[in-house]
């Protein structure tokens, strides 16, 4: 289920990052009393009164600046506006209304999206005279807040939640395998999708997705039903290619959340880039089934060791996704596209696999006999029993005597033993520990 997206926008140095950190509950953005210090959009999951949403922080917006860094920041803000469902327009209550605020307001009006005017740095209940100047922007009732002192945030968040779209989510049957195609621009996402849909497939319909850039395409292959979530439409005319790549992350978030299986596209002619790691990392953190798809394999000069060496490079660069299968394809020639569909179905089944409790405990007990749990200061970790609490992703709950004794290395050992027996290929496994009184 895709979460609504809330973008924080405003000219430099009005306190956007301080506000972001306050709502996100942790210090994520760089906060410094210097304009232009937040140059990249930062995003975090947030929640207010059981409403979950994604919060985007942006660099300061200076609409007419010719400075190259500020121009790049402006482009990022435009991309955030494209993605957002609700926009928080932050202004400075101490400085008062300035010409830049009016320029930003004019841009925001053209989005046609809900814009909430937020007057920051109002540090007490007495509103300064400058507060009333912001009515001139014609953007409705301003909300007076202090990000530093956490004043007025509840009323503001109530208003933001009230503006969330009511039809954000598209409902599909559980039997449909939802596949997100993610990765940086030019990796071949659109080509892969076109090749999948263009060869002996029955396209059911094209449905506009939850963001402007995503198109959901249900189709059938054999007896199986799929939904392809296309995030490929992320390119804009820009001379700053590095900046374009940064846009792909926030656009991929919504698709990742709604997917069962994520195809992380790697350009074989470039190898694994930092952007690839970032996008793949979100699929991993969201607990999605994952397949690493190396496209443009037909363009790579090969010898007998090429595929093996490329696989080693991927395993090194994406070490956190060692469970993800790797497939080498060519969207141009159609090489291994049918095998890709088979792999998607396989990973989806692994992602939703449930292990009987008795069988799981047999494996855990055997693992304990082969390698005793760790001890500390004479106290040994005792494992009583384990059970699988949920699927998509598989979550294993292990009942023990003391959480402090459950070291990461032993958790990894148990995970490896579980994988050796049951597979769980293409899916992360979440292992949680619960303490239970040792007398039981």
TrEMBL record:
InterPro entries: G_ENGA, GTP-bd, GTPase_Der, KH_dom-like, KH_dom-like_a/b, P-loop_NTPase, Small_GTP-bd. Pfam families: KH_dom-like, MMR_HSR1. GO terms for biological process: ribosome biogenesis. GTP 1 binds at residues 10-17, 57-61, 120-123. The keyword Flavoprotein does not apply. GTP 2 binds at residues 183-190, 230-234, 295-298. Transmembrane segments: none annotated. Residues 4-168, 177-352 form the EngA-type G domain. GO terms for molecular function: GTP binding; ribosome binding. SUPFAM superfamilies: P-loop containing nucleoside triphosphate hydrolases. Keywords: GTP-binding, Nucleotide-binding, Repeat, Ribosome biogenesis. PROSITE patterns: G_ENGA. CDD domains: EngA1, EngA2. It comes from the Bacteria. GTPase that plays an essential role in the late steps of ribosome biogenesis. Belongs to the TRAFAC class TrmE-Era-EngA-EngB-Septin-like GTPase superfamily. EngA (Der) GTPase family. Associates with the 50S ribosomal subunit. NCBIfam families: GTPase_EngA, small_GTP. This is GTPase Der. It comes from Anaeromicrobium sediminis.
């Amino acid at each position: 289920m895709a979460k609504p997206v809330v973008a924080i926008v405003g000219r430099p140095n009005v306190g956007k990052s301080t506000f972001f950190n306050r709502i996100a509950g942790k210090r994520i953005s760089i906060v410094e009393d210097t304009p232009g210090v937040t140059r990249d959009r930062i995003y975090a999951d947030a929640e207010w009164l059981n409403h979950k949403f994604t919060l985007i922080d942006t660099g300061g917006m200076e609409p007419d600046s010719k400075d190259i860094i500020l121009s790049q920041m402006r482009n990022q803000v435009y991309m955030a506006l494209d993605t957002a469902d609700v926009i928080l327009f932050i202004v400075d209550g101490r400085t008062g209304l300035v010409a830049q605020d009016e320029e930003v307001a004019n841009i925001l009006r053209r989005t046609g999206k809900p814009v909430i005017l937020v007057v920051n740095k109002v540090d007490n209940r007495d509103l300064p005279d400058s507060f009333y100047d912001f009515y001139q922007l014609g953007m409705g009732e301003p909300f007076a807040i202090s990000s530093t002192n956490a004043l007025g945030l509840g009323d503001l968040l109530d208003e933001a939640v009230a503006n969330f779209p009511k039809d954000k989510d598209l409902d599909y049957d559980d039997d449909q395998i939802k596949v997100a195609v993610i990765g940086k621009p030019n990796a071949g996402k659109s080509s892969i999708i076109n090749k999948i849909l263009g060869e002996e497939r029955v396209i059911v319909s094209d449905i506009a997705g939850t963001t402007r850039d995503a198109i959901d395409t249900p189709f059938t292959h054999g007896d199986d039903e799929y939904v392809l979530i296309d995030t490929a439409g992320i390119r804009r005319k820009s001379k700053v290619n590095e900046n374009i790549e940064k846009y792909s992350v926030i656009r991929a978030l919504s698709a990742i959340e709604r997917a069962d299986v994520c195809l992380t596209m790697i350009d074989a002619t470039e190898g694994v880039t930092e952007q690839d790691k970032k996008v793949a990392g979100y699929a991993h953190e969201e607990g999605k089934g994952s397949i690493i798809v190396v496209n443009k394999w037909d363009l790579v000069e090969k010898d007998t060791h090429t595929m093996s060496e490329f696989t080693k490079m991927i395993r090194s660069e994406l070490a956190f996704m060692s469970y993800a299968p790797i497939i080498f394809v060519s969207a141009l020639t159609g090489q291994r596209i049918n095998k890709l569909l088979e792999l998607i179905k396989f990973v989806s089944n692994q992602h939703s696999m449930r292990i009987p409790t008795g069988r799981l405990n047999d494996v855990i007990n055997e693992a304990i006999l082969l390698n005793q749990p760790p001890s500390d200061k004479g106290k040994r970790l005792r494992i009583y029993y384990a059970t699988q609490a949920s699927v998509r992703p598989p979550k294993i709950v292990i009942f023990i005597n003391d959480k402090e004794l459950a070291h990461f290395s032993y958790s990894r050992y148990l995970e490896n033993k579980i994988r050796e027996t049951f597979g769980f290929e293409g899916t992360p496994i979440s292992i949680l520990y619960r303490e239970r009184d040792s007398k039981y």
